[in-house]
Amino acid sequence: MTFYDEPARAFVYYSPALDRKKAHTLQREIERERTRITKVTKKLAGKAFSSAEDARQAADILQQESPLRWHQVTPIIVEQEVPVKRRGRPKAGVPPATRTEYTVTLRVTNPVPEAIQAERERRSTFILLTSNLTYDAQQALQEYKGQGQNEHGFRWTKSPIHLGAFWLKKPARVTGLGYLLLLALQFARIMRAMVRAELKDQPPLELPHRNVTSETVILDALRDLDIRLQSNETLTWYQWTAVLPYQRRILEALGVAVDRGFVWEPSG
């Protein structure tokens, strides 16, 4: 096959583990739909209409407001004669006055098991597309599963913790921002690798509620660091202040001299 005019191979997979997960999700969808039907039925049960057409239109409107996928609902129009209340005592031998009213009941057909099974199979099936024509189905699947770190990286770059919403105006700036985010992700992963390597044979870090398992945790641990301007009669410098023990260990693992001052000389 071709994909964007390039040769490619496509593989179709069925996952039993995914099927078990999707089965629970599908069951919840069906239950929520049944709950909506119950609410619609209650709304219609308390209403009487002067004509069969009005009753049918009311049922159609409510069904359009809550479209159904799994259940089939058929409105049943019921015609009945109800007495008309009038003042005074009715005359002897005169039948009581009545009027015709129409009510709606809903006949509900439960989902077809074959349709549910077909949907489960559809949701548990996925397709992998690769431009590597030498891959077989097993190799393509292994390559896909090995990209978990990439997927995690995409979530990291899109996290609002690292970047808030703002307007870039030009497409070129969006592209530039994308490259900056990739560089930031690479820098964060280098930091993570350095910290893990240096602390491999040492006691674990005592972080508040978390362990060093991701780029986000390391950056969050350093978020509250404070660098303040210090000065004396001859020199001005910047110095770390209030460095917590776990922050000191991370900085030292990164090769940062915690107790060293940083001198800044303005240009120009």
Précis, in short:
The chain is α+β, with helices and mostly antiparallel strands. The protein is 44% helix and 20% strand.
Features:
8 helices, three-stranded antiparallel beta sheet, two-stranded antiparallel ribbon, alpha+beta, about 270 residues
Written overview of the protein:
This protein has 268 residues and is an alpha+beta fold. The protein has helices at 16-45, 52-65, 113-123, 137-145, 148-157, 171-198, 215-221, 245-253, and strands spanning 2-3, 6-7, 9-14, 72-83, 98-109, 125-130, 226-231, 236-241, 262-263. Helix 1 (16-45) packs across helix 3 (113-123) and helix 6 (171-198) packs across helix 7 (215-221). The longest helix is centred in the first third of the chain and has 30 residues, at 16-45. 4% of the residues are buried.
Number of helices: 8
Q: What percent strand?
A: 15-25%
Instruction: Please give the alpha-carbon distance between the first and last residues.
Output: 62 Å
Given helix and strand content, the structural type is alpha+beta
Which strand order does the major sheet show?
A: 7-8-9
Radius of gyration: 34 Å
Described by the principal axes of the CA atoms, the overall outline is elongated
N to C succession of SSEs = EEEHHEEHEHHHHEEHE
